Amino acid sequence: MNLNMNGRKAIVCGASKGLGRACAMALAAEGVDLVINARNAEALEATAEAIRTRTGLKVQAVAADITTEAGRDQVLAACPDPDILVTNAGGPPPGDFRHWDEQAWYAAVDANMLAPIFMIRAVVDGMLERGYGRIVNITSSAVKAPIPILGLSNGARSGLTGFVAGLARETVAKNVTINNLLPGSFETDRLKSTLESYAQKLGVSADQVRQQQMQASPAGRFGDPAEFGALCAFLCGAQAGFITGQNLLLDGGAYPGTF
Q: DSSP labels for 151-172?
């Protein structure tokens, strides 16, 4: 399928590795010029070079902290009028809510709720004026089915979800859609750290936890980030203009509900 994105411009946050990197790769494969962002300059440039080598497209890497105004300004200066925005931030650490102080909550909300909202605010009016825009927020399956040790993520990402639900209905008439992708267990560094945390809590090996969780999944495996990137690319394409305000769950069937 031709997604009709050749020559479009995109900002992809948290793109140095994991699901953000997969989204950047998938968009580049469709001919999208990229500005990619993350805090780790070395890892980010490695991703940018991999995309350039694979596609021959222009990729600009902007190493900056997107949770700060200065960081957002750096990214937006590199691409002030994007057609596509993919927001993404590493999830807050797992743990027991009794141990999280006020600063831990502020950090989670800054990264997983406020930073995406501020990026959306910066680009959405330009998208509306041009009559095309695709905004995709990478959140978590924990928004749909909260995970006890991920309370910081459960709370902060749910706040973003509620915000998007209202705004997405206001923008779609001008061909600007806003959707959320809710990943379950994908083969990423984030998954590795979560499994290690579970293993430590249970007093078993991380490999044991890994095998148990894969066996518990209806799919019998964890997700491939490339699968995630492909859906992100579709949501950013011309054919997805009638999809907005949705929370799309990619979890291999782990969520047991009908709705």
A: HHHHHHHHHHHHHHHHHHHHHG
